[in-house]
Design brief:
Layout (H helix, E strand, L loop, with lengths): L3 E4 L3 E7 L2 H6 L7 E3 L2 H11 L5 E5 L1 H11 L4 E4 L6 H13 L2 E2 L13 E7 L5 E6 L13 H6 L2 E5 L6 H16 L3 E5 L3 H6 L1 H8 L3 E7 H8 L4 H8 L3 E7 L5 E5 L2 E5 L12 H14 L4 H15 L10 H9 L2
Parallel strand pairs: 1-5, 1-9, 2-7, 3-8, 5-6, 9-10, 10-11, 11-12
Antiparallel strand pairs: 2-4, 7-8, 12-13, 13-14
Helix pairs in contact: 3-11, 6-8, 9-10, 11-12
């Protein structure tokens, strides 16, 4: 039996230090993220291959599933990987953590590669990113481990899947299978751009609603087209039984049939907020599926998010660091 079954993009972050001249020569806007295709990514990587490159597997839902696994849940993750250096790295990284991850399913070419985010760091500390979703943008239902999903306590869906026809259809397939198997369904809105530009597909992915919904305040307000969080909460309650809205330094708002609570968080000095929402969802689900109340789960999730933003990167340095969260250290 699986505790948590996730579906999302598989993206390997590759950090490399570059000069300002390189960004200028490649016509890349400093400090911005640009979506590119696999041939363009291959060209950039070839020009930088003589430099040290640090890799870390990622993707929003992958980070959440990784955290849940490290915090003691049994997990399965569905994604699409190509047979290249990033696909092999991602698979090995997830399997080393204990995640039952999708195997490599696609031959790699310059036109079709595993998802990658090239993070180019200039001497001034700015991070300029180019992202190629590659084959991760082409998931099909055949990749779904139906027996694992049917036995899972909870399905976790990444809202970013709404930007792809293939991925959104596979997410809908998983949602329908989960409902038929009495598996709980959790979903994250992922990003305000998904709410703004992929609203119709997100709604289709949600079907008649989900059991748990994660979002931040900006996403909640955008969903309801309002500047009132109270109004947004009322509208979001129509599509979920339990709602977690992250509020940055103010913690999180938790709403379910039993009530509504604002759960505070430890005050820390943030260094990199990347991944805060991902680890929040993973820690929250880990606690909730083990019997914690919604407010208790949010408190634990806040502590996890506070920890990850005091370092660079979307994940804690080791499995042991996740486990320390449970002891409060």
């Amino acid at each position: 039996m699986v505790d948590l079954y996730g579906i999302g993009n598989a993206v390997v972050d590759a950090d490399v230090e570059v000069s300002m001249a390189f960004l200028s020569d490649e016509d890349l806007a400093v400090g911005h993220m640009t979506l590119i295709d696999s041939p363009r990514m291959a060209d950039l990587v070839a020009k930088l291959e003589h430099l040290p490159m640090r890799r870390a597997s990622g993707g929003s839902a992958a980070n959440t599933i990784f955290a849940a696994q490290a915090l003691g849940l049994s997990t399965t993750y569905t994604c699409k990987l190509a047979d290249d250096v990033n696909g092999k790295y991602f698979l090995a990284d997830m399997q080393a953590a204990g995640v039952d991850n999708s195997e490599i399913s696609e031959a790699a070419t310059d036109q079709r590669r595993s998802g990658q985010c090239l993070v180019m760091i200039t001497p001034d500390g700015q991070r300029t990113m180019c992202t190629d979703l590659g084959v991760s943008n082409e998931m099909t239902p055949s990749l779904v481990n139906t027996s694992a999903l049917a036995s899972a306590q909870c399905l976790y869906i990444e809202g970013y899947l709404s930007s792809s026809e293939h991925n959104s259809q596979t997410a809908i397939y998983c949602h329908e299978l989960a409902r038929a198997s009495n598996t709980q369904i959790a979903l994250t809105l992922s990003d305000v751009s998904m709410v703004t530009f992929c609203r119709e597909t997100l709604e289709t992915m949600m079907g008649e609603g989900v059991d748990t919904l994660f979002c931040n305040a900006e996403e909640a307000l955008a969903w309801a087209s309002t500047d009132s969080l109270g109004v947004a909460i009322k509208e979001l309650q129509d599509i979920t039984k339990e709602l977690y809205i992250t509020l940055g330094a103010n913690g999180a708002q938790v709403v379910n049939a039993e009530g509504s609570w604002q759960v505070g968080t430890e005050k820390v000095r943030p260094i990199d907020t990347n991944g805060a929402g991902d680890i929040f969802a993973g820690a929250c689900l880990a606690a909730r599926l083990r019997g914690a109340s919604a407010a208790e789960a949010a408190k634990f999730a806040n502590n996890a998010a506070a920890k990850v933003i005091t370092q660079f990167g979307a994940r804690l340095p080791s499995i042991a660091d996740y486990q320390k969260l449970q002891s409060g250290s």
